[in-house]
Amino acid sequence: MDYIYPNKNLLEKRSEKLGKEEKYYSLSKLIYEKDFNDKLLFPVGIDNNNEKYYINLLEKSGMFISGETGSGKSIFINDIVISLLLKNTPEELQIVFIDPRNVEFNVYRGVPHVQNNVFSNKEDSVNALKKMINTIEERRELFVNSNNKNIGDYNSKEKEKLPQILLIIDESSDVFEYMETKDYINRILSEGYKFGIHLILATSSYLKNSFDQETLNKFNYILSFDLASEEQAKYLKMKRANLLSISGEALIKLEGDNIINIQVPYVSDCDIEVIVNYLKNTSN
């Protein structure tokens, strides 16, 4: 069966539980406004002037997300996943989930885009990171032998295309208990994008003992849902400030160190279930 892209009717317009006065935008209002040929582009939100912001991970290392429980971090990660699932076939994009607490990504089990379902065991999580490094080396050799500089060059010339790989790590403080994790993360951030590997790393804990500024600076984008904590504020190099008033409101540092206050789009559990079931049924 040929892969059929889902259409916008699969996404609910907005959840009934949201108050009419809250400035939530449903994901469907943002994702379908952009060209679906931008395979790694996804919406990050809308500001007070109704300007809409998008991020394209193509040729980018990755994104760092911080936020306390209930702040909107999980919804935003689901925004990213659903956005990219809607516009990519499994041959174009593979997603690797690492969730040591095994609470966030189980809904995506069985989706054809997802490699090995969800890594939750800490040892398996580190092995998954190591596999990403092995993939970098395998693709490096492949590109050298085929006289290509990066995955874009390779896929534009070769018949057999390579998928982009999105690695999503939630509650990363747990993963950082392993000594080798930092080295793997740094290698992925330094050169992974050349080989089609991109990292989204999220945490609700300040990684002061395992995550230095040098590593943080390698992320192209940093988004925080909570600046009330002095430690959380360090991610954006801001003084302690309680600027974020409602769930889903965030500050994002874009390239050029511009920091923008946005409201991330909303995607409901029902939206996610509809898309996931569609993708599972389409692959059968």
Question: Care to describe what's here?
Answer:
With 284 residues, this protein is an alpha/beta fold. Helix content is 32%, strand content 19%. The protein has nine helices and ten strands. Helix 3 (122-145) packs parallel to helix 6. It is globular and about 50 Å long. Residues 1-23 have low confidence and may be disordered.
Strand and helix layout:
Blueprint: H1 27-31, E1 41-46, E2 52-56, E3 62-66, H2 73-87, E4 93-98, E5 114-119, H3 122-145, H4 151-157, E6 164-169, H5 172-175, H6 179-191, E7 197-203, H7 213-216, E8 221-224, H8 230-233, E9 249-253, E10 259-263, H9 269-283
Parallel strand pairs: 3-7, 3-8, 4-5, 4-6, 6-7
Antiparallel strand pairs: 1-2, 8-9, 9-10
Could you give a quick summary of the protein structure above?
The chain has a domain of 194 residues: Rossmann fold, CATH 3.40.50. With 284 residues, the chain is α/β, with parallel strands linked by helices.
- DSSP strand count: 10
What is the number of helices? Answer: 9
Regarding quaternary structure, what we see is: single chain
| Sequence stretches where pLDDT stays below 50 over 5 or more residues | 1-23
